């Protein structure tokens, strides 16, 4: 804190003539000078830390918020070495380039979650651990279930101290012992000092509760007691027992219910118990204590109401719920209601709440007025600088966000917080894009593709300024430029080659024990992981996953595998996760982690892909462009396959990356031929995968053991049906678009659809088969369905589709309302428009054979040879698979979600 006691150079030289000594005055340094000064030091320390040579000086750390404790600590002379005060600097970058953010919770405090073993309590615990909490006490009346224990251990695996204790907080004595145990000081006779086993209690999340529903004529006081025990007695006990704590609470949050505001049939005890929580929060605030109550609507994924159908309400996601909780803590509001619903329907379902909901509708109407396009352009057109334009656009984006997230019009939204963190899901992003389009009108076209990589208000504002200024839209390359780019991208780097030593030490496929999987949580990935784990030799599967600030890799893995009904069949002890990105050097890992993994892994299963059909294949600075992800990703995977040791490579290709037939008239089942796409339409996904196949061809020629699988459209699994990411399927998106529009083009297109589980099973069996070579396989369903007949299929689901000539279809589709909520799927359905002139003059050879009536054109000779008992006999026809997937879409509400009008009578 001062410049006293700094040694001079002469003093240091006298003591240690062998060291270099320099005095750095931080107050006078520019950011650039600071970086130049400290980066070499940081690099040296990082290197020494890996070797265990660097040890920090003795110190005790306090957050700035606990500076009073720090001074008392120093006054009592308890410290060894220095006392360090940590100062949060929101929005500032440290020397590593990472943003330094203040966390919501103190890592030197204990936080109590009542009802902590339930679904909501555990999600809150995970979220708190991601936001700075390092000591969490979970309590519940009943002991944790096996699944709850697994989730608790998962939180502990992050280094968080999680305590689990059975306790009825409605029992005053039990609650007193619980609180005392946290704050109890213990005496150490050896050092003659006192210490705490856990840091002091600084926050409470009161999520405990019970239901005992019944209409008034059957209600009893015992039923009220069952509900009031946690809600009334529990909250009052916690209030009373924390009044005299040596350290004041930071948070006292009570989980109430929307029922306390609107009322709820047969839940008089539940309504009154939660109303008590609301009243207690206001009382605590009135006497200067922290207190907040959240009137929760319906949690859609966890909690007792997860699977209920509540009139006027729609379930919200865990992410949205946690975003609301974070908002409550940051805004210091005493009471907030969180729900997703139809206000009009809610007024009918809850007559008692008519006045309150009317006010909400008025608030929404006020926000809607702020989206007036004329007002937007009046403000925008008078601006002179880029900064002024940015401010106008930013204001409108925040208005739309408040409207979509049901926030107050004065609610502050951070420019740099990610949309996902504030509760925006994919459909809400589409709604926001449509709101922006409504503001700017016809002067600017805003496509999903042009803004989909923008993750924050700041990024989106800059992008829209560029769009309005005409700086973003880049014309596609000419045919000659496209050919040159394909040739350039298809050159395999010279370092990707198998040397004699690596081939000599190569393991057999049946001996592989450690593998790396990219795209493990995609459409096909979970089933591939499941099939890999069935191999007796495999003991470890590393899943390469991108960083996600909301969910840990294990959480994402568990959710997706549970949704696909695979979790119970997967041994999680054999699964490990690596944060990275195939499109980045070193697969997005540190050099140390990359080299360690490269030395351990014996086979790579590459399924990560971006399958956007509405992008041109072109040079782009966008790291999320499909060319950058797919082609760069393939080169990085092949580089990894020859680093440290030679590895087998499994690659998931696509049927639309090939157009030829062989001499017998069958679909080409070999490595691709150069120049195939010279006269085909410019669509980034098929071209990028074609380039990847060319790279694999060269890798095999250089001794890298690769097997690649051309995969058709993927459908639901053969057991549960429809159990896949249906909206990640371009085929399904196109069919849903036709059903939504009520029209389709009269064009013959072959549909080959394979169940996702059989696709994984076939490819893994072929991969581990020692008899198969390092070659290409066509994993196609030979029973083809003609898209031209889709109108008849749609009719079976109560949807009438008019079949039009392609030109008329395109003209009508262009006239669709630009503000339509499902414009995204319509645009993707129209992605073939840019292919029209090329498709007419250069119809692929395989299409020609199929149109001529060759029913076996897609039959794989290799699969018939190596899987004679399974292929193609185990598969239903593509038509039957399509019908099952459409049935799944209707049953799960996807038809309704996208506004598809259908009749139940057919």
Short description:
It contains 34 helices and 28 strands.
Any descriptors?
906 residues, alpha/beta, Rossmann fold, Non-ribosomal Peptide Synthetase Peptidyl Carrier Protein, Chain A, seven-stranded parallel β-sheet, 34 helices, 13% strand, FAR_NAD-bd, NAD(P)-bd_dom_sf, phosphoprotein, KR_dom, phosphopantetheine
Q: CATH first level of the domain at 110-338: which class?
A: Alpha Beta
How does the major sheet shape up?
7 strands, parallel
- On the 0-100 scale, what is the average pLDDT? 82
User: How many β-strands, per DSSP?
Assistant: 28
CATH topology of the domain at 110-338: Rossmann fold
Helical content stands at 40-55%
Report the oligomer. Answer: single chain
**Gross CATH architecture of the domain at 110-338:** 3-Layer(aba) Sandwich
Hey, roughly how much beta strand do the residues contain?
5-15%
Number of helices: 34
Helix-strand category: alpha/beta
Shape: globular
Termini separation comes to: 80 Å
Task: Provide the fold topology.
Layout: H1 9-15, H2 31-50, E1 59-63, H3 67-75, E2 82-86, E3 92-93, E4 99-100, E5 110-114, H4 119-130, E6 135-140, H5 146-156, E7 161-166, H6 172-183, E8 185-188, E9 193-196, E10 201-206, H7 221-241, E11 251-257, H8 259-262, H9 268-286, E12 292-296, E13 313-314, H10 318-331, E14 335-338, E15 340-341, H11 343-349, H12 354-369, H13 373-381, H14 386-405, H15 426-440, H16 448-451, H17 457-469, H18 479-489, H19 500-504, E16 514-518, H20 525-532, E17 540-545, H21 553-563, E18 575-579, H22 591-600, E19 603-606, H23 626-642, E20 648-654, H24 684-701, E21 706-711, E22 713-715, H25 730-741, E23 743-745, E24 750-751, E25 753-755, H26 756-768, E26 776-778, E27 785-786, H27 790-796, E28 802-804, H28 806-814, H29 823-829, H30 836-841, H31 845-851, H32 861-866, H33 878-891, H34 894-897
Helix pairs in contact: 4-5, 6-7, 7-9, 11-12, 13-14, 14-15, 14-17, 20-26, 23-24, 25-29
